[in-house]
Write a structure and sequence with these properties.
The complex is a heterodimer. By secondary structure, chain A is mainly beta. Chain A contains no helices and 11 strands. Chain A has strands at about 5, 10-15, 20-25, 30-35, 45-50, 55, 65-70, 75-80, 85-95, 105, 110. In chain A, strands 2, 4, 5, 6, 9, 10 and 11 form a 7-stranded mixed beta sheet that branches. A 4-stranded antiparallel beta sheet of chain A has the order 1-3-8-7, with no helix packed on it. In chain A, a hairpin with an 8-residue loop joins strand 9 (about 85-95) and strand 10. In chain A, about 35% of the residues are buried. Chain B has strands at about 5, 10-15, 20-25, 35-40, 45-50, 55-60, 60-65, 70-75, 85-90, 100, 105-110. In chain B, strands 2, 4, 5, 9, 10 and 11 form a 6-stranded mixed beta sheet that branches. Classes of the chains: A mainly beta, B mainly beta.
């Protein structure tokens, strides 16, 4: 089973709201990722968690706050977002942090009004 | 600087018309190259990993090949359901295994 699940599928939030995106995998993978994807562009890496510790933060604004409660779960907490943050947010996982293929979830379509 | 370039940006084919998508890269000591398929509004679906020049992998109508400078995704007798964006990616930047440098993608449309 190579499934990564994400909730919610769609999210509309105002600029003053606080919301969270959730991601789950049960493949025993030890690395998990958050990506942001704008229309007709490839995914852009935001964060990497390796063995439940944040290992890479690609200079993402502090209004995005990642959390890895355990090896299967990854959250992305959102606060005071801007309209330009509207995008498809993708979670991915891989077996480790060497050269392994990443498996992506279906994404959360976020609209900031 | 690591670069991954895909061509063409968009490709329209008639059903059954075979073609190839290109992914060229400038990475020294390539440690792997990945192909993904992405349908609109969905996450990328993993297709293949290629590790060394000369390697080939196949899945249904798709065959991926790798040389020292580029990879090709050959689509044989495509069907409308093959319509999607195809992305290639390499580890990096700097061959970092836990990061991916993506190409810009090729949007494939197969008409019946």
């Amino acid at each position: 089973d190579t499934e990564v699940t994400q909730t919610p599928k769609h999210l509309v939030m105002g600029m003053t709201n606080k919301k969270s995106l959730k991601c789950e995998q049960h493949m025993g993978h030890r690395a998990m990722y958050w990506y942001k994807q704008k229309a007709k562009k490839p995914p852009e890496l935001m964060f990497v968690y390796s063995y439940e510790k944040l290992s890479i933060n690609e200079s993402v604004p502090s209004r995005f706050s990642p959390e890895c409660p355990n090896s299967s779960l990854l959250n992305l907490h959102l606060h005071a977002l801007q309209p330009e943050d509207s995008a498809l947010y993708l979670c991915a996982s891989s077996a480790g942090t060497s050269v392994y293929e990443q498996y992506f979830g279906p994404g959360t379509r976020l609209t900031v009004t | 600087e690591d670069q991954v370039t895909q061509s063409p940006e968009a490709l329209r084919l008639q059903e059954g018309e075979s073609s190839s998508l290109n992914c060229s890269y400038t990475v020294s000591g390539l440690r792997g190259l990945f192909w993904y398929r992405q349908d609109p509004g969905k996450g990328p679906e993993f297709l293949f990993t290629l590790y060394s020049a000369g390697e080939e992998k196949e899945k249904e109508r798709l065959k991926a090949t790798l040389t020292k400078k580029e990879s090709f995704l050959h689509i044989t007798a495509p069907k409308p359901e093959d319509s999607a964006t195809y992305l290639c990616a390499v580890p990096g930047p700097n061959n970092a295994g836990n990061m991916l440098t993506f190409g810009g993608g090729t949007r494939l449309m197969v008409k019946p």
